[in-house]
Amino acid sequence: MDFRMVMAALLGFAFAGPASAAMKDPKAKVAAIKALDWLGAEQHRQGYWEANGQQYRVAMTALAGNAMLCEGSTATRGRFSKKIALAVDYLLECAQPNGLIGFKNDYHYTYGHGFSMLFLSQVFGEEEDARRREKLKEVLTKAVQFCGEAQTPDGGWGYVSAKDGNNFDEGSTCVTQVQGLRACRNAGIPVPKEIIDRAVEYIKKCTATDGGVQYSIRGGGSRPPITAAAIACLFNSGEYEDEFAQKLLKYCEKNIKDNRNNQQFFGHWHYTHFYYSQVMYRLGDDQWGKYAPEIFREIMRQQSANGSWKESHVGPVYVTAINATILLMDNGFLPIYQR
């Protein structure tokens, strides 16, 4: 199958429901719940979370809320329902008339926009209140439109929109937008095909001969974290055997799998495994059964007594949210992570 078709399929792939594999390690589930309890205590009364220096409020809120959804709670029921509902309310209030979920004066606002599309689209699929569902649909529809307008001529995205950033783009923000767009499309929100077509070309142009995705279309060298994120998006489509996807997978196996315990090897360790865990889970029980026990042990070894993790320059909310998501990956509650 042509790579363009793979990425187009990514936006139309239908998921079958919760994954059959349940959480096999009770210690991992305990660690995840402890992490979510810590996150719950850290949520501000207005509904948001934030990173170090009071930054990234929109992105942190979406990531923390998404982790709570992975536990099985929704905005209306479950242990973390009130926390999720507050997060939804905050993000809906952050939605701007031009479609941006966030604020132009925020640092790296496209991250928050992409993660918010992902989180709110998962909530939208479970929303039963007609008025609230209509509001979510309105915000997500405009968010998709903003995403298309923020895309650079080369097909990528930068830390801010193309207009605000002089057409600068880089791989990690591109993947965030693509996965957010796929989640929206999966929830029934219209997503123009041409946005994905341009993203397809961007990712292909960013891929080096060794199979690694570079930092930017301008170069910067192959990056294991960005490559893991890119292949996670490809695997969302179910195209595990595509030649291009296999090329990226081989790069990941060489540069991530054999170095999973060495956090100094390439940096951004938690970010890498946030996406690589999605890849390993989608490969099936055989691969997941080899990967998960080791990565779970490494994650739990680092957990603080209060349930959080500190290993990140962004801050404990960020790393705690993504580590909890990894530990809850095989719960299979969210369509975005299902096999």
Characterise this structure.
This protein has a two-stranded antiparallel ribbon with strand order 1-2. The chain is mainly α. It has a single domain, classed as Glycosyltransferase (Alpha/alpha barrel). It is globular. Strand 1 and strand 2 form a beta hairpin. Helix 3 runs parallel beside helix 5 (109-124), helix 3 packs parallel to helix 13 (316-327) and helix 11 (269-282) packs parallel to helix 13. It has helices at residues 3-10, 26-42, 57-70, 81-94, 109-124, 130-150, 171-186, 193-206, 224-236, 243-255, 269-282, 285-302, 316-327, and strands at residues 214-216, 219-222.
Kindly summarize this structure in a few lines.
With 339 residues, this protein is mainly alpha-helical.
Taken from the alpha-carbon principal axes, the silhouette is globular
> What is the CATH level 1 assignment?
Mainly Alpha
Name the helix and strand elements from N-terminus to C-terminus, one letter apiece: HHHHHHHHEEHHHHH
Named CATH topology: Glycosyltransferase
Q: What's the number of extended β-strand segments?
A: 2
User: N-to-C terminal Cα separation, in Å?
Assistant: 20 Å
Question: How many helix segments?
Answer: 13
Strand order of the largest sheet: 1-2
The biggest sheet, with number of strands, parallel, antiparallel or mixed sense and barrel status, is: 2 strands, antiparallel
Provide mean pLDDT, rounded.
Answer: 88
What low-confidence regions span 5 or more consecutive residues with pLDDT below 50? Answer: 1-23
Helix content: 55-70%
**Relative strand content:** under 5%
CATH architecture: Alpha/alpha barrel
Helix-strand makeup class? mainly alpha
Instruction: Tell me the count of domains.
Output: 1
Rg for CA atoms? 18 Å
